[in-house]
From TrEMBL:
One of its GO terms (molecular function) is ferrochelatase activity. Gene3D superfamilies: 3.40.50.1400. One of its GO terms (biological process) is heme biosynthetic process. Pathway: Porphyrin-containing compound metabolism; protoheme biosynthesis. It comes from Cohnella phaseoli. This is Coproporphyrin III ferrochelatase. Keywords: Cytoplasm, Heme biosynthesis, Iron, Lyase, Metal-binding, Porphyrin biosynthesis. It catalyses: Fe-coproporphyrin III + 2 H(+) = coproporphyrin III + Fe(2+). Belongs to the ferrochelatase family.
Length: 316
């Protein structure tokens, strides 16, 4: 394509995932900054993928659908050609740098980056945007990044609808159910940096609970890395054990830090957490993920257009 003067590139960023079981080792090695995993580590991750999807990789498919749906929404709101979406993944091709390079090859001179997670942390969203911005500078592309959208009204609406839907599915247990909000843990050292991640997650959780009319809720962490350093806790498994000991018998997990069906949802919650809950006599359900839901696409499109017009983001 030949971009006109005002065509704005949109870099849609996600963590990335392998395309097949054969690609797990290269993917894991990239996560480990070039250090190959041990045979045990590789088998553990591969077996998790094999267990949940039998070789199909939902995050890859979801990201493709999300980028396409966001493109359609931007076309609807701003007209065809005003925005053009590209993908940039953190740990798999097309990498963040690949997405920016593709923009440059297409003649894009202005870009907005948005990450498929609502809350900001310097160790997550901040890292994505830094990589994208540095690469954009090499190509002479003016880059703006969407820092967060954790309290966007349509995001809260979409999540609250899913909470009410999940509680209805619990039937007679609705009144006794505890809504357990969760998100990916990060190294605890972010607390020393006054990082907003934890506060934004609590803000999202509180807003969703209020919108859904839920008074009985808690927040917990999940999916901590095995790095030998402290990570934010308590972990969801610890929390479920504590809740069971306190007599809670019905839990609706609401992973507000995630937007897609992927390993941390389909394995860490649907298999690992659910198994523990059953062992403790707790019925565990989970809300539907946002994936390419029209309301979520509206959130992303509104955030992108706002950033392009000088708001809700960092301008470089």
């Amino acid at each position: 394509m030949s971009a006109d003067k005002r065509t704005i590139g949109v870099l849609v960023m996600s963590y990335g995932t392998p395309e097949s079981l054969e690609g797990v080792e290269a993917y894991y090695t990239h996560i480990r900054r070039g250090h190959p995993p041990t045979a045990e580590q590789l088998e553990d991750l591969t077996s998790r993928y094999r267990t949940i999807v039998g070789g199909v990789f939902p995050l890859r498919e979801n990201t493709n659908r999300q980028a396409a749906a966001l493109q359609s929404k931007l076309n609807e709101l701003a007209g065809d050609g005003a925005y053009v979406c590209y993908q940039g993944l953190k740990h798999a091709a097309p990498f963040i740098e690949d997405g920016i390079a593709a923009m440059a090859a297409d003649g894009i001179r202005e870009a907005v980056g948005i990450v498929l997670t609502p809350q900001y942390s310097s160790m997550s969203v901040g890292g994505y945007l830094k990589r994208a911005r540095e690469e954009a500078e090499k190509h002479g592309i003016r880059f703006r990044g969407v820092d967060e959208y954790h309290l966007h009204p349509q995001l809260i609406e979409a999540l609250s609808e899913r909470v009410n839907e999940g509680l209805e599915q619990l039937g007679g247990e609705r009144g006794e159910a505890l809504v357990l909000f969760s998100a990916h843990s990060l190294p605890a050292k972010i607390l020393e940096l006054n990082d907003p991640y934890a506060d934004q997650l609590l803000a999202t959780s509180g807003a969703v609970a209020a919108k859904a009319g839920v008074a009985n809720w808690q927040f917990t962490w999940q999916s901590a890395g095995q790095t030998g350093q402290p990570w934010l806790g308590p972990d969801i498994l610890e929390t479920l054990e504590k809740l069971a000991a306190e007599g809670v018998r019905s839990v609706l997990v609401t992973p507000v830090g995630f937007v897609s069906d992927h390993l941390e949802v389909l394995y860490d919650i649907d298999i690992e957490a659910k198994q523990l809950a059953e062992e403790k006599g707790v019925r565990l359900a989970r809300i539907r993920m946002l994936n390419d839901d029209p309301q979520y696409m509206a959130v992303l499109a509104d955030s992108v257009i706002g950033a392009a017009n000088g708001g809700n983001g960092n301008d470089e």
